[in-house]
Design brief:
The protein has two helices and no strands. It is an all-alpha fold. The chain is rod-shaped and about 135 Å long. It has one domain (2-107). Helix 1 (2-62) runs parallel beside helix 2 (64-107). The model has no long low-confidence stretch (mean pLDDT 86). It has helices at 2-62, 64-107. It is a peripheral membrane protein.
Length: 108
């Protein structure tokens, strides 16, 4: 009778070991599925965040930054025009003298 109990005990242990193996396998599968789901969720959140940042950037570029750049270019252009006018007024007398000298000397 002890031998039957021993075999029954061994059989119970084998059955319990197989059940434990199935439980561990199911847990691993569930863990891998959860990791994949977490990765997918993280990628989705990254894409949404990236799209949000891109939209904000495009809004800034198309809005106030363009206005500021246009104003800066206008200011630079006005400054250059002013400098050219000042330079031309300084040398205009000399140019008139040079042209008068050229016209009077070559015409003779």
């Amino acid at each position: 009778m002890d031998s039957l109990r021993g075999q029954g005990g061994i059989q119970m242990l084998l059955t319990a070991e197989q059940e434990a193996g199935r439980i561990v396998s199911a847990a691993r599968t569930a863990k891998l599925a959860r990791l994949k789901q977490a990765k997918d969720e993280a990628e989705k959140e990254m894409e949404e965040y990236r799209a949000k940042l891109e939209e904000e950037y495009q809004t800034q570029v198309s809005g106030t930054d363009q206005e500021a750049a246009a104003k800066r270019l206008d200011d630079e252009t006005e400054g250059r025009i002013k400098n050219l006018k000042e330079s031309s007024s300084k040398v205009s007398k000399e140019i008139v003298k040079m042209l008068t000298k050229y016209v009077t000397t070559t015409a003779s």
